[in-house]
Every structure is written in structure tokens, then in C-alpha cells.
């Protein structure tokens, strides 16, 4: 019986195990003495006593695991979306080589996020929902028609595909930001979540760049914003982006959330917000003459779990409890 | 970047510390002694960013001062070989970074009176502002560095509201980084992500080691967040 193997196993389920042991000096000291006094046979019992002490004082990362499973749910949503889209040859024919490569890269990142979060959660991870849980046409599992499916041509029209992709990524960015305070008890997990968060933002930016330049453009970054923000967004969110790619379905992605239960000082404002930390940005020195949009663009906004779930369920079939 | 390569685990130092400690009681004393904080031997000419949440805000303020100064200089005298879209990018992002800088300054003055980091003197002598490529490369370096800095600083923050603010800024920096990378080389927007799909995060000391070449004053970030 190897104690470190045991701890390693526990770590798979509870990433905080080292913190728990390390943060309690008395247990830690207790343990260092044990190594010499106890025989190998007695060790498991002693270790059990130590872990009982370590875990007795706090729930076993319930909140952290809940947040991670929420993140995993969103990653499944994204991952199944790109998995299908990138495997649809007719759709891919509508993208330039660089754009297709970019979408392949995003698909890979999202699949890696799923694998990574599953490995962190271990046995606490939710079950794989499977592709049938999602309906990216927005018809929620019914036979899609022009009447019931706002994204009817999502896997045949590159423009619609990019519109949905941007919507998913912008939602993800807001979701991770809103979840961050709930992970503060576990610094390792918090850092990992932040490292995913910025990758989602990079994706969102690239998808917006592609939407400006058009699916067949090989140097999309050279296309300036022109026309409506709905169809030709900046690489960052400007105001509420006019409600996003398809306002009837996507306005909520750029709108305000629900502040109930938010940590002190945290608010879930609309993306057009220009007040940060209780202070109006527009009154700052050295910003005279800046357009109003610049103040909203400089800060993304967080969103609460409940609101994110409601948005994400746009793409979950009726009758499923996924993300409910 | 041990944190980045082994994101599943508690940082190596802590793990090995724990294992050593369990090995023998005798060794424990040594390891514990090795873990105590080194006495501060930093020369007095350096500026310490301090401790606590104020230090994290000042750390961010230092980086935003740097970015804002860089973008302001580009916007003021842009390279002649910029494309129209690249020029527009620098003009817009110059505003974002100026807002970040002035917001942090105001927040520190309000929440931690008397602790505001001084104005820094940027040193951009390694950047050729007349050449598109030189400016783009520098912008990419600043944006990627900024993203990794905020990512690494998150765990050092104690106040949830500050953590969210940092998150609100870092995703905008990541959006900048994404398109600046595409200016430099289309399709490289998230090449900083590792095999787990995780972006880079750096400690304040790691970030300042890189950033120091652009700052005249010597900064000490070794106590940030403590």
C-alpha cells in the first residue's frame, strides 16, 4: 500500500486533496511522525484517520465540482457542434483553407477542454450527453422547418455556422467569467478555468474576424467592420452588438444576467455596460473624446449560471434535462 | 511553466514538498526550513508592488501602463506600411488600453489610498515603430503576455469582485491577442493553447522578467498577492 498512490487516486476525484492536507498543519505534522512509527500493514488505517480529519471540515469540493460540471456541459455543447460541422464536407467546401484550419483548431481545443475537465472531475464528471441531446438548428429536436428552426441551415450555410459558433463562444466567455468566483477555494482549478476562458475569448475573436471577412476569405483579419454589428461584428463585443448574430435568439448572450446570489460587488451587466467597480468609465481622465462604444468594448461582462443555462438550452432538444 | 504543463496537478513544488515531508521526519525539518520565505534582499532602488489585493491591482496597472503607452505611441505615429484595418485596430485598442490603465488607477486610489504605483517610464527602444512587422510582433508579445499575466494573477486575488474585473479585462486582451496574431500569421489566434486546450498563465515574477526590458524602473513582483 503506497500512501502517495492513494493520495494520487483521491486527487483524481478531488483535485483539492493536497490543499486539504497541506493547509492543516497539525494533520501534516501528525503524518510525518507516522511514517517511522507504523508498520506498512497499519498504514492504511492511519491514513484513513488523517483523511477523515482533512475532509471532515469542508464539503468535498461540491461547489467546485458543480461549477466544473457546468463548464463541462458547455464544452460538450461546443464540442458536438464543431464535431458535426467540421465533419460535414459540403459545409467545409464553403470555407477558405485558413478558415477551415481555424475551425479545425477550435474543434480540437473544445474537444481537449472536454477531455481535460473530465480528467479533473474524475468519477464526479457528468455523463457524456451524446450528440442526440443537441439540435443546433434551434428546432429543439422537432423536424426542422423554416418556421421552427432559426438556424435551419446551420450545417449547410457557412454564414449560419459561423453565427452559431460566435454565439456559443461569446456565451462561454461570459460563463467562465461568472463561474470564476465560485472556484476561488481551489487555486489550481481556478487557474485552469481562467486558462480555458482566455482560449474561448481567442476563439470568439477569430470567429468574429471570419464573419467580417466572409467564409471564403483567406486573410479575414484584413476586413474592417462594415454594415451592421449583427452580420459584421468587431473582434470584440461593442455595446450589445445589436443583439448578436440573430437577435431573436442571441440578444440574451449580450444582455444582463440575474444578480441574485452574486458575490459581493459582482454584477452581471449587459455587455453595453460602462460602469465598472461602481465607477463610471466615461468620467475617467485621459479619455476625453473617446466614443461611448470604446468604454463598453474595453470590458467584457460576466454572466450567471442560470442565465447561461437558459441561453444554452436554445440548442438542447425538448425532453432533455441537460443544462436544465 | 510547470503550472501550464501540469494543469491537472497542484504545482510541483507543493507536491514534492508534501512527498518529501512524508518521507522521513528528519528530512521534514530541512524541507520546512527551505520553504520559509527568503529574507528580502531586493535592492532598495527597485519598486516593490507590495502585498495583498492592492499589489495585484498595481501589478495589472503596471502592465496596462505599458500597453497603453505602447499603443498610444503606435496610434500617434503609425507605421507607414500598416493596412487600413491594422491602423484602425491600433487606434481602437489604444483606447481600450487607456481605459484599462485609467480604470485601475482610479480603482487603486479609491480602494487602497496611498498605494498607487508610480507612473512608469516605458522603454520601447527595441521596437521599430516605423516598421509594421516590428510593431505587430511587439503588440502580439504584449497581448499574449497580458493574457498570461491575468490568467496567473487570478489565484492571487482575494476579493471576488476584483477577480471578475480581472476576468472582464483578460478576455478583451485575449480578443486583441487573437486578431493581432492573425495579422502576423493568419490562423495562429489560439496557438498559445496547450494539449489540454489551456492558455498560458505566468506568475508575476515570470511576467515582470519579460516585461522589465520595456520598463525603465526596476519592479519587484515577488510579493504580489501575498
Describe the protein in words.
- With 324 residues, chain A is mainly α.
- Chain A has 2 domains: 3-56, no CATH class; 62-315.
- Chain A contains 12 helices and 2 strands.
- The longest helix of chain A is centred in the middle third of the chain and has 27 residues, at 187-213.
- Chain B has 2 domains: 9-35, no CATH class; 47-220, Ferritin, core subunit, four-helix bundle (Ferritin, Up-down Bundle).
- Helix content of chain B is 60%, strand content 2%.
- Chain B contains 8 helices and 2 strands; from the N terminus they run αααβαααααβ.
- A two-stranded parallel ribbon of chain B has the order 1-2.
- In chain B, α2 runs antiparallel to α3 (25-35) and α6 (132-153) runs antiparallel to α7.
- Mean pLDDT of chain B is 86; it is low at 1-43.
- Chains A and B meet through α1, α2, α3, α7 and α8 of A and α2, α5, α6 and α7 of B.
Cα-atom radius of gyration of chain B: 19 Å
SSE string of chain A, helices as H and strands as E: HHHHHHHHHHEEHH
> What is the typical, i.e. mean, pLDDT of chain A?
87
In which range does the helix fraction of chain B lie? 55-70%
Number of helices of chain A: 12
- How would you write the strand order of the largest sheet of chain A? 1-2
**Any idea how many domains of chain B?**
2
Characterize the biggest β-sheet of chain A.
2 strands, antiparallel
pLDDT below 50 for ≥5 consecutive residues: which ranges of chain A?
19-62
Distance between the termini of chain B: 20 Å
Largest interface: A-B, 88 and 76 residues
Oligomeric status: heterodimer
Helix proportion range of chain A? 40-55%
Low-confidence stretches of chain B: 1-43
Q: In order across it, which strands form the biggest sheet of chain B?
A: 1-2
> What is the H/E string of chain B?
HHHEHHHHHE
Major sheet attributes of chain B:
2 strands, parallel
